[in-house]
Amino acid sequence: MVLAVLLCAACSDAAGTPPAATRPTMPSAADVPGIEAEVRQWRTDEAVGGQVQVTVTDTGEEPFTVTSVALESPGFAPLPDRPVDAAFAPGRTIDVPAQYGEVDCGQEAEPAAARLTVVRPDGRTERLRVPLSAEVLTRIHGEECAARTVLAVAGVDVVGLAPDGDAVTGTLTLTRTGDDDRPVTVTRLQGNVHYSVAADLPRTLRAGESTLEIGLRFTMARCDPHALAEAKQPYLFLLGLQVGGDEEVPVDLPLDQTDRDQLAALVDRGC
């Protein structure tokens, strides 16, 4: 996590963002009697992308209803409130889905708050800022900023995916995108429940080189109905990138809708 924060700071400085000390910080939310909140993220949220759960607990002695939710975090761009309908009784805990905005690598993710619209039993409506236990936002923030920093050195693309018998083949391309001439190594490419993926790794985009091409071969990993029905992220493949002597940073293999369609068609052929 320390590496991710350092990379994040480097990303912001390179982009010309003012140092954190010169920017206004979001004030911490005061405790709200009877309501506690934290951030969680499930596999279904990761599959949706840009989403977490605000887990709200009624710790008081009266019921209430939450009719909207939004995240407040200095490390993410603000988004509009999301309408919800969650009825709470004393002691009850409910996961309320909330989107997070574009990451701001010049800020920390915390202190964070949940912005809630709460309707009381007598009909009163309150707009509340509830302190948010947000270690999950800090993790997401660090991962996205680390990936952004690495991809600022060399961009990643997948081109030419096409059927090849019981496989889909194509090319992974690394293209240097800035003035940083350090070597960039593709350390690994990880398959998932649905698909295996083979590539000749590790491979390195060396200093002085502008482009690196690596062959890809996707095949079916499992065809049983349970795997096909339950996989939440069939098109998520983790790619390991290492700039110079820095630690490896995992990024998502970029697949557009045409690429995903090719892999979906592989299920019909391979299973």
By DSSP, the count of extended strands is 15
Could you say how many structural domains there are in total? 2
Oligomeric nature of the chains? single chain
Uncertain runs are 1-24
CATH class of the largest domain equals Mainly Beta
| SS class | alpha+beta
H-E string: HEHEEEEEEHEEEEEEHEEH
Task: Describe the overall structure.
It is a single chain. This protein has 271 residues and is α+β, with helices and mostly antiparallel strands. The chain has 2 domains: 2-146, Immunoglobulins (Immunoglobulin-like); 153-270, Immunoglobulin-like (Sandwich), CATH 2.60.40. Helices cover 21% and strands 40% of the residues. The protein contains 5 helices and 15 strands. The strands form 3 sheets. The chain has a 7-stranded mixed sheet. Strand 6 (112-119) and strand 7 form a beta hairpin. Mean pLDDT is 89; it is low at 1-24.
Features:
5 helices; 2 domains; Immunoglobulin-like; seven-stranded mixed sheet; alpha+beta; flat; 271 residues; disordered N terminus; 15 strands
